[in-house]
Amino acid sequence: MTLQRLLYALLIAICAWTGYYLLEKHWADDVQIAPDAEKPIFTGKSVINTAYNESGQRSYQIDAAHLEHFSQSGNTDFVEPVLWVYKNGSETEWRISSNEARLDKNHILQMTGNVRIFNLLPESAVRVIQTDTLRLNLVSKDFDTPDHVIITGDAFQNEGTGMKGNMDRNIATLLNNVKGRYEAL
Question: What range does the record give for the signal peptide (predicted)?
Fold first, then answer.
């Protein structure tokens, strides 16, 4: 009989220990992680936003597959943005696309990943500008990038490292390591 009682006592001890182990895990306080202080105040999908200048003319339009706006920082993050810049409020002059972009409260748009700038005017010598990042002031239309740039036109292709310019004045200056190839028409 003592062997049977010993087995019962051992079985009760195992059950008690297992129950204690499971209840301890159940009653343990969950680890609290501090929430992100800045969550987007609003988000959107397939968004089109048009901005106007002081005289009421269209200045630019941003289309995006997805956006998130943060009220505390004033930043708006875009996924697959396309920026349309208007000439005199009516004619679309520039189309700029990238993988991602961030617009800050000072109207500086930082575009990253596969940035492509297309001039849509038929009389323009420049057709496409390619780079990895672009910083654009949406008020003054000044832009710059420190990255490798390729500028392609009807009869030329220039490339270099770094660029600055202005979209209203149609100026783009390559800064370093400039190379060019020109073809006769």
Answer: none
DSSP letter (8 states) at residue 7: H
CA of 12: how far to CAs of 27, 56, 159, in Å? 22, 83, 80
Q: How far apart are CA 106 and CA 71, in angstroms?
A: 13
Closest listed residue to residue 161, CA positions, set 172, 173, 180, 177: 177
Q: Is residue 127 part of a domain?
A: yes
Query: What would the pLDDT profile of 66-94 be if each residue is shown by its tens digit?
Result: 999 888 888 899 999 999 988 887 888 88
Arithmetic mean of pLDDT, 2-11:
81
Residue-range definition of the domain harbouring residue 56: 42-182
Q: Considering only CA atoms, which of 109, 108, 144, 110 is closest in space to residue 129?
A: 144
146 within a domain of the structure (yes/no): yes
Task: State the pTM of this model.
Answer: 0.74
Residue 16 in any domain: the answer is no
User: What count of residues does the chain have?
Assistant: 185
* Count of domains forming the chain: 1
Q: Is 47 exposed, middle or buried (0-12, 13-18, 19+ CB in 10 A)?
A: middle
User: Which residues, in sequence order, are CB contacts of 69 under 8 Å at separation 6+?
Assistant: 40, 41, 42, 43, 75, 76, 77
Output the domain CATH number for residue 81. 2.60.450.10
Task: Give the strand pairing for 82-87 and 76-79.
Answer: unpaired
In whole angstroms, what is the distance from residue 66 CA to residue 101 CA?
11
